[in-house]
Amino acid sequence: MRLHEYQAKEIFADAGIPVPESQLADSVEGVLDAVAEIGYPAAIKAQVHVGGRGKAGGIEIATSEDEAREAAESILGMDLKGYTVDKVLVEQGVDFVDEYYVGVTMDRGAGKPVAMVSTKGGVDIEQVAEDDPEAIAQEHIDPAFGLHPYQARKVVYDAGVPAEYARDVSSILSTLYDLYESNDASDIEINPVMITSDDDVIAADAVMNIDEDALFRHPDLAEMEEDSYQNDLERKAGEYGFDYVRLSGNTGIIGNGAGLVMTTLDLVDYYGGTPANFLDIGGGAKAERVANALDMVFSDENVDSVVFNIFGGITRGDEVAKGINEALEQFDEIPKPVVVRLAGTNAEEGMEILNTDLVQVEATLADAVQRAVENASEVAQ
Questions:
Q1: Which CATH class name applies to 96-221?
Q2: What is the pTM of this model?
Q3: pLDDT class for 285, splitting at 50, 70, 90?
């Protein structure tokens, strides 16, 4: 479960990490009221689950009421990488002289959490890792003992953080690990940690993602789950229990298994299309679950065609075919062309059940993807 910046910052502040004064707003008047109380300059920040908000126009600095109004009118309601912005965080501006990155995530190769610090904060840390990996200092953590104070100091020193800020940055890192461990987080980071002109160290951003399977242990975080949905599609995916990510393309993708869906995404791109989503219906999917998946993809106005990629292990091809038929028979006219590829358990039975008046059937995945991409291209024209 991904938390919004404002949600993560509430948790950070409660744990003692310094954050700027801020208020949440969902209207232009709400933004103006907030900046009137917080003061200028103020940052107006879209609350959406995407990176690169600033470059995409989702973060503006206002130094006057006119600028605040203009920024609020521009950001609220905007489409930001496929997400509609319906709320913003109005935050006290920070006069900074330097920016660092601090975070904790799981190193799956090592099988341990890893603490990371870099003096190249404020930019895409993935790009830093690719272009200049030595700029990110790392320290692996034994989960049986946690992050030792000497480890926090060491990784901060290895990153090259100046001595006058090292104690504060180490403290923030230690607190981040405590939050990571106690909340069953999958990753947690601050980018950037800002050094102010008054030599204060403050968290100017906040990212915190929670393992959904552990939410039963955290009722306080579970209450945030509904608010963490960014749009009706994500809310619907939560209700249906789907692993779903909305993307920016127009070819809808449904599969049973994360690897199968990722392969389909890659093939859509390979054949010149653009994926509209990641939607994994899971193993053993019954007819109702398949119908729910189609309902979700049809609800996405960006989708121009759909490819259904099912490989039956636990999932039975005849059950999938029933679900597809049941879903499509509800429509007087099929809203989006659907291409189906079935393989594995009961695939032949499923192919016989499929209503070919409602769907297009292909024997191979490559053929199914190519046809779906062609369908999307024709609809888009």
A1: alpha beta
A2: 0.71
A3: low
